[in-house]
Write a structure and sequence with these properties.
The complex is a heterodimer of chains A (92) and B (97).
Chain A: H1 3-14, H2 18-37, E1 42-44, E2 48-55, E3 58-61, E4 68-71, E5 74-81, H3 83-90
Antiparallel strand pairs in A: 1-2, 2-5, 3-4
Helix pairs in contact in A: 1-2
Chain B: H1 3-13, H2 19-38, E1 43-45, E2 49-56, E3 59-62, E4 69-72, E5 75-82, H3 84-90
Antiparallel strand pairs in B: 1-2, 2-5, 3-4
Helix pairs in contact in B: 1-2
The chains are: A alpha+beta (92), B alpha+beta (97).
């Protein structure tokens, strides 16, 4: 499933014109993104939770050349599926 | 932030839709994603990230309290991989520790 499929799904299920469906799907993902960039976690009940985690700098090694490199401090997003979603996935 | 706050935010940004309508749309989006995952599909959202189902094999583990060996059965887990543009905007500013 791609973003275009999600737009199509909204178009079919809600009956919103395709360009409007496209616009709102963009806004939804963009809002989730902006929230996380601001450092706030976001919980979508029935789906899951997105968290922002800060990682400190550490030494990594290029597995091919064995060369040591510093991995810069960074922020990453973790996603934890809700119990409901986990259950659905277990049943596949 | 919760889904209801997300719905409020989105309502502010779109014209001509009520909060109720936005709520239906947001629920439709996440339900659609859930249905796709339930069919075993992966989801690719450009600029955001990918959701993929990974197979975990059965393994032997130990109960840390009793030291007893137990078999952990094989299972499927959902994995989210952050998209590169999202990772970049997340780390664009200097990250304070």
């Amino acid at each position: 499933m791609t973003k275009a499929d999600i737009v199509n799904y909204v178009f079919e299920k809600v009956g919103l014109p395709r360009n409007e469906a496209q616009n709102i799907v963009e806004i939804v993902f963009d809002s989730v993104k902006q929230t996380l960039i601001a450092g706030e976690s976001i919980k979508i009940s029935g789906f899951g939770t997105f968290n922002v985690r800060k990682k400190n700098s550490r030494i990594g090694r290029n597995p091919k050349t064995k060369e040591e490199v510093e991995i810069t401090p960074r922020r990453v997003i973790t996603f934890k599926a809700s119990d409901q979603l986990k259950e659905v996935i277990e049943k596949i | 932030m919760t889904k209801s706050v997300l719905i409020e935010k989105v309502t502010e940004k779109v014209e001509g839709l009520t909060k109720k309508q936005v709520e239906t749309i947001v629920n439709t989006i996440f339900d659609g994603m859930k249905d796709a995952l339930a069919r075993g599909e992966k989801i690719e959202i450009r600029g955001f990230g990918n959701f993929r189902i990974k197979q975990r094999n059965a393994k032997m583990a130990r109960n840390p309290r009793t030291g007893e060996k137990v078999e952990v059965p094989a299972k499927k887990v959902l994995h989210f991989k952050l998209g590169k543009p999202f990772h970049d905007s997340l780390n664009a500013e200097t990250v304070e520790k």
